Automatic annotation (TrEMBL), chain A:
This is Alkylglycerone-phosphate synthase. Homodimer. Gene3D superfamilies: 3.30.160.650, 3.30.300.330, 3.30.465.10, 3.30.70.3450, Uridine Diphospho-n-acetylenolpyruvylglucosamine Reductase, domain 2, Vanillyl-alcohol Oxidase, Chain A, domain 4. Catalyzes the exchange of the acyl chain in acyl-dihydroxyacetonephosphate (acyl-DHAP) for a long chain fatty alcohol, yielding the first ether linked intermediate, i.e. alkyl-dihydroxyacetonephosphate (alkyl-DHAP), in the pathway of ether lipid biosynthesis. The gene is LOC107725825. Keywords: Acetylation, FAD, Flavoprotein, Lipid biosynthesis, Lipid metabolism, Membrane, Peroxisome, Phosphoprotein, Transferase, Transit peptide. SUPFAM superfamilies: FAD-binding/transporter-associated domain-like (SSF56176), FAD-linked oxidases, C-terminal domain (SSF55103).
TrEMBL record, chain B:
This is Dihydroxyacetone phosphate acyltransferase-like. Belongs to the GPAT/DAPAT family. Keywords: Acyltransferase, Membrane, Transferase. It comes from the Eukaryota. GO terms for molecular function: glycerol-3-phosphate O-acyltransferase activity; glycerone-phosphate O-acyltransferase activity.
Length: 627, 666
């Protein structure tokens, strides 16, 4: 990154964000002034004015990840390419992906498993509407729909089994209707009516859940209403004196960041799903952002939360930065996963956009050395904005996603680098692993910080491996979810899951979980060894967050999703047995509920249950997550 | 783990490894290129590096600090002590020494044994296991030969050479101790109960080797050589050490490989008998070993080594051990096994020993020895042949791993066996009898004569003992049926359970397996047509008498022996019987009974039986240990002992030793 002045670095930062995020029409202006609730006045405004339309299926896939125009495919020449114009990778050819794909999974481009192209509307059960509720809601002027496409879209998150079923055209229980409140007051009204008429509400933010949190409980007999927060997406005010912003909770990450950027600020909260996930969703799941080392995780970013519950609105009376007023009521809300109410507005800390940003990467001879280095960086508390360590399999995967190089010179340089690392430095290409780094701050400090980190890395045999590798590593996090859809076109299914674990157990946990996955796949008749890989994605004083990818070729299996779920279950058991947590940031949902008692003790679970009982005795927020 | 009904078990076939040795150069063989299969996760490390890894380990550092703060010594001082302990303990495995052993042992084995048979399928399984996960080898222990043979075989099959946990007593043999050290033995003090530092050094040393995949760890579950050829109650200390890296997530899995080593004739045969009779064991010394050269000139028949199926610790623990119990304490802090871990270890140890037992090859002589012991006045060869054949079929039906030569007449097999064991027998005019063959010419006292005969009897018993595990459960049932007040199943079961508790130090009886054992016994006898097991009753079949009588007489020496001990405790003890005095005193008591003609059972002289009986009385709270000063005295509850003796006595109805056979013939 070659920016030299502070003004150009800000632009640089913007370009990067714009690079991997959706492009917006230029004429649109940010609406960052305090506004009145639009409930009465702007009800008739077309939804196209908002970044997330009510009919999301118009720009997003109904049965896969992300935007409809962006997807991986193998073209007629058998080369992989990424379509669309939204991402840096868009329109590029990825020459090595095919070989990696076939070699890793034993997959074959001849063997396709295409998805059902469109929703089979006849498979969607007719809505079971609570008429009095609908009438009252209409009277209150809240936008709503019981269009089957709208309902199907909100009946799932992005767990493998959810997407797999959609691709096969199987549709289970879906919400009976969707409502779009446009402000806090609307939500209050909806919740009040839901209590009155006893309907089940399921809050829906970005829809990026990977914990079965959005699945409609089968045993639910009431009418299920999906409460889509996407139209509550305004930044209500920015307080530059205290560096806070008050934002409606339906805003999605990229819009929040872009609009703040336009005013010279950022939250710095960048979860991998930030293109689609919402502020309310982050609060409800205890989300974690890639740059938490500088900005903190969501619980450190929120100053104030407003949530509508069946008992009424819960919020604190002031914006004090810390309080000693008994247990922090925010912590009942953070991670409540939609079981207690709807988060409507949040006051967040904001920061000026950093002057300078620099990517980097370090190659280590093996994973052990890499982990030792990260541990040392954490010990010295000098972690950059982001530091991630990929294992060897993931490093190779990253290489497979290198776009076609345009100049002979670049490919010559690449060859030279490879030669230097493997031959001259004696790194084994089957053991080496790479850490990607992102530094942020003022230029002088970034450069100083960079040197400090590279010096530590050198002590663990790490070699600086350039900015490109680093930047590509981060770009991958945005496109990797698209890759799963490609795999699913060719009999490959997979998913990611995560945990947090004390430092001294990181290596053992990684090795054991990866091996457990391989072994379980074998025992369950998976024909080809699975991809079982991990990376350390966050460092803390007392431990790290570890992220696993796991995928396999399911040809020859009669019930691949069941096999997948059994293996994931076993992997989670292994994580817990090795001292890992049930989840670092994905949450519990319904997928990991069975381990809650073991994780927080029965007294702990009882505490949470009693809160639920008090706040929502009718179980109006009936998604049955967590407890 | 252990199949319910042993006869369903398929066993591999054997190859004689000496065959090739007899046809090619031992020297070239010892010097051949050795390229062992390696563990895939091996962390390469020299023996010298091991020491610093162990001393630097978090675990040891933690304990050093703890000991230092408790004792007031400086940490440097404690660390120095740890280093000395490690020096005393550590092996210095080097290939050249192993090659030397391979050369000399090739020579020795060829002279000692007709054949050394190994199940090569077991070797193949081991080759596989060694690559996947760190391996722990668990051989049975009947002879000093055992671990030499193990290393020899592993070298021979290009498997990684093991490091072997050996008792400190070897170290007194200066030269030999060092040789063994260089061939992979490491030495542990026999007792170091409260010594935290010693325990830490020792356990960390073993775990480091295991974690790094340095070499297979070999140790003896039984802790020491069994002098009686019965398997000994397993120890769990080392088993816990090798499992802990799995419990704590440091290893994905550990493979336990039970190995059964059996000898047609044991080198230490009469040594053991003498030891059991209290004739003091010569201290292990190099010169003693040299004197043992005499043994080289004798014929010890065949030797069998059976490598069992690797048992994965991971699958063993499934549903039994919650590994997350180790989550809340830093892993370097030593933790005593929790109650359920302890139970698991104990259970696993017993099951592993049962696997060892089940895979132990039995030779025809074992059957003959059983019969000769039951007929102290000797037998006619023809009747011996007849009964041996009968017994052979019973043993096979109960799942014995019997190596009976194909296509050989029973009489031929018997005469071969008798020839190999002629030093225990006298054969004249078609009559065979256990007897002292190399009786000294000089006049002997009656006491000495008893001991000479006892040596023969105990030597012979060590062969019978090899097959006890096959008959044990049905025999307990047979005895229980005789002593029960009725045929009712629960009465019989209660008696069975009583005997099982009584003999749980004597035989390998898994604690908690009482119901299973009972069912197994019922099943075997039912299948044999000896019993009918009805819903509430157990009924003997018309043809079942002889089998039941035989089975009862198998346990007879033990029943009699325990009765002798209890009689001693009731009649002879004073207030101040110390634990140390117990064995010699009981031995004298038994000797007097024999000399007076009131006891025929020479096995009552065995210190092993006496120790086990005492352990049983202690366990059943009929005797208490009381510490007085630095002496431990035994307080006898005579009423309790008396009542135990009565219960034992009820089953001891077979006055005429061979009554079962006459019933069979009639």
């Amino acid at each position: 990154m070659a920016s030299n002045s502070s003004s150009s670095t800000a632009q640089q930062r913007l370009r990067i964000i714009a690079g991997h995020l959706q492009k917006r029409p230029e004429d649109e202006h940010p609406s960052v002034a305090a506004q009145e609730c639009k409930a009465e006045t702007s009800r008739s405004n077309p939804s196209s004015a908002t970044p997330v339309p009510k009919r999301r299926q118009e720009i997003m896939k109904w049965n896969g990840w992300g935007y409809s125009d962006s997807r991986f495919l193998f073209n007629k020449k058998g080369q992989a390419e990424f379509t669309g114009k939204r991402y840096r990778l868009s329109g590029l050819i990825l020459p090595s992906l095919k070989d990696w794909f076939e070699g890793t999974f034993g997959a074959n481009l001849q063997h396709k498993s295409p998805a059902t192209p469109t929703v089979n509307l006849s498979a969607v059960a007719p809505p079971d509407l609570n008429e009095p509720f609908v009438e009252d809601l209409k009277a209150a002027g809240v936008a709503m729909s019981h269009d089957p496409e709208d309902r199907v879209f909100r009946a799932h998150g992005h767990c493998l089994h959810e997407i797999f079923a959609l691709r096969e055209g199987r549709i289970g229980r879906v919400p009976d209707m969707v409502v779009w409140p446009s402000c806090h007051k609307d939500v209050e009204k909806i919740v009040e009516l839901a209590c009155k008429h006893n309907v089940c509400l399921i809050p829906y933010g970005g829809g990026t859940s990977v914990s079965s949190a959005l699945e409609c409980p089968r045993e639910e007999t009431r009418s299920i209403v999906s409460l889509d927060t996407s139209q509550m997406n305004r930044i209500l005010w920015i307080d530059e004196k205290n560096l806070t912003a008050h934002v409606e909770a339906g805003i999605i990450g990229q819009d929040l960041e872009r609009q703040l950027n336009e005013c010279g600020y950022c939250t710095g909260h960048e979860p991998d799903s930030m293109e689609f996930s919402s502020l309310g969703g982050w609060v409800a799941t205890r989300a974690s952002g890639m740059k938490k080392n500088i900005y903190g995780n969501i619980e450190e970013l929120v100053v104030h939360i407003k949530m509508v519950t069946p008992r009424g609105v819960i919020e604190k009376s002031c914006l004090g930065p810390r309080m000693s007023t008994g247990p922090d009521i925010h912590h009942f809300i953070l991670g409540s996963e939609g079981t207690l109410g709807v988060v409507t507005e949040v006051t967040l800390k904001i920061r000026p956009i950093p002057e300078y940003q620099k990517y980097g990467s370090v190659v280590f001879p093996n994973f052990q050395q890499g982990v030792a280095c990260l541990r040392e960086v954490a010990r010295q508390r000098c972690a950059p904005a982001s530091i991630r360590l990929m294992d060897n399999e993931q490093f190779q995967f990253g290489h497979a996603l290198k776009p076609q190089v345009s100049s002979i010179f670049t490919s010559f340089l690449d060859g030279l680098k490879k030669f230097y690392i493997t031959k001259f430095k004696g790194f084994d290409p089957h053991h080496l692993c790479v850490a990607t780094l992102l530094f942020e701050g003022d230029r002088g400090k970034v450069l100083q910080h960079e040197k400090q980190v590279y010096d530590i890395a050198a002590k663990f045999g790490g070699l600086a491996a350039g900015e490109d590798n680093g930047q590509r590593g981060y770009m991958l996090t945005f496109v990797i979810a698209y890759l799963r859809d490609l795999g699913m076109d060719y009999y490959v299914i997979g998913e990611s899951f995560e945990t947090s674990v004390p430092w001294d157990r990181v290596l053992d946990l990684c090795r054991n979980v990866k091996e457990r996955i391989v072994r379980e796949c074998k025992e369950r008749g998976v024909q080809f060894p699975p991809l079982s890989t991990c990376r350390v994605t966050q460092t803390y004083d007392a431990g790290a967050c570890v992220y696993f990818y796991f995928a396999f070729n399911y040809r020859g299996l009669s019930d691949p999703v069941h096999v997948y779920e059994q293996v994931e279950h076993a992997a989670r058991e292994e994580i817990l047995a090795n001292g890992g947590s049930l989840s670092h940031h994905h949450g519990v949902g319904k997928l990991r509920k069975e381990w809650m008692k073991e994780s927080v003790s029965s007294v702990g679970l009882g505490m949470l249950k009693s809160v639920k009982e008090y706040v929502d005795p009718q179980n109006v927020f009936g998604n049955r997550n967590l407890l | 783990l252990a199949p319910r009904h042993p006869m369903l078990k398929k066993r591999d076939s054997f190859e004689d490894i000496l065959e090739e040795r007899r046809h090619s150069s031992d020297l070239r063989y010892a010097l051949r290129c050795y390229t062992p299969t390696l563990y895939k996760g091996l962390v390469p490390c020299k023996a010298s590096m091991l020491k610093s890894i162990v001393l630097q380990s978090d675990h040891l550092q933690y304990v050093i600090k703890q000991v230092s703060s408790e004792s007031g010594d400086s940490t440097e001082c404690v660390a120095e002590e740890a280093s000395l302990i490690l020096d005393e303990m550590a092996h210095r495995l080097q290939l050249s020494t192993v090659r030397f052993f391979v050369f000399t042992l090739s020579k020795a084995f060829k002279r000692l044994f007709r054949s050394v048979c190994v199940n090569e399928e077991g070797i193949q399984r081991l080759q596989q296991a060694v690559q996947e996960h760190p391996v722990v080898l668990l051989p049975s222990h009947r002879s000093y030969m055992d671990f030499l043979m193990m290393s020899y075989l592993l070298y021979m099959y290009d498997l990684p050479l093991p490091v072997i946990a050996a008792g400190m007593d070897f170290m007194s043999m200066k030269f030999v101790g060092e040789m063994l050290r260089m061939s992979g033995a490491f030495f542990i003090r026999r007792s170091f109960g409260g010594d935290k530092l010693y325990w830490a050094v020792f356990s960390e040393y073993v775990k480091t080797m295991l974690r790094n995949g340095y070499a297979p760890i070999e140790f003896f579950l039984e802790g020491t050589r069994s002098r009686t050829c019965k398997s000994l109650t397993p120890k769990t200390g080392l088993l816990n050490i090798v499992m802990e890296p799995f419990f704590k997530g440091e290893l994905f899995d550990v493979n336990l490989v039970p190995v059964s080593i059996s000898y047609e004739r044991i080198l230490e045969e009469s040594l053991y008998a003498r030891e059991l009779l209290g004739i003091p064991k010569p201290k292990e010394s190099t010169s003693g070993l040299l004197k043992a050269r005499r043994v080289l000139s004798e014929d010890y028949g065949s030797m069998y080594v059976y490598f069992g199926h690797p048992v994965s610790v991971r699958s063993l623990t499934e549903g039994k051990i919650t590994r997350s119990q180790y989550n809340l304490l830093p892993r370097c802090i030593p933790q005593k096994p929790s109650a359920d871990t302890h139970e698991f270890l104990n259970d696993t140890a017993f099951r592993l020993v049962r696997i060892q037992e089940g895979n132990m090859v039995l030779k025809p002589w074992v059957l003959i020895a059983t019969l000769l012991l039951q007929n102290p006045d000797g037998m006619d060869l023809s009747s011996l042949a007849e009964q041996t054949d009968w017994l052979r079929h019973l043993a096979l039906a109960f799942g014995a791993f019997l190596d009976w030569p194909d296509h050989a007449a029973c009489s031929e097999v018997i005469s071969c066996s008798l020839a190999l064991h002629r030093h225990l027998l006298s054969v004249s005019a078609g009559h065979v009898q256990l007897s002292v063959t190399d009786a000294p010419q000089v006049e002997t006292t009656p006491e000495e004569a008893v001991f000479h005969q006892a040596v023969v009897v105990l030597s012979c018993a060590s062969y019978r003992n090899q097959i006890l595990h096959v008959f044990l459960r049905p025999a307990l049932l047979a005895v229980a049926m005789q002593s029960a007040n009725s045929n009712r199943k629960d009465d019989v079961y209660n008696c069975f359970n009583f005997l099982r508790n009584m003999f749980s130090s004597e035989f390998i009886l898994c604690p908690g397996d009482s119901v299973q054992d009972f069912e197994e016994a019922c099943y075997l006898l039912m299948k044999r047509g000896v019993l009918q097991v009805l819903e509430h009753e157990i009924v003997m079949s018309a043809s079942g008498h002889s089998t039941l009588a035989f089975l009862s007489s198998v346990l007879d020496p033990f029943l009699q022996g325990y009765q002798v001990v209890s009689r001693y405790l009731c009649e002879e003890t004073n207030e101040n019987l110390t634990e140390k005095e117990f064995i010699p005193a009981v031995r004298n008591f038994a000797l007097k009974l024999i000399l007076a003609g009131r006891l025929k059972c020479y096995e009552a002289l065995s210190s092993d039986l006496q120790k086990n009986a005492l352990a049983a009385f202690l366990r059943l709270k009929a005797v208490m240990k009381v510490k007085v000063g630095d002496q431990v005295t035994l307080k006898v509850n005579k009423i309790a002992v008396n009542s135990l003796e009565d219960t034992l006595g009820k089953s001891d109805v077979i006055s005429h030793q061979n009554s079962w056979w006459s019933r069979l013939v009639l």
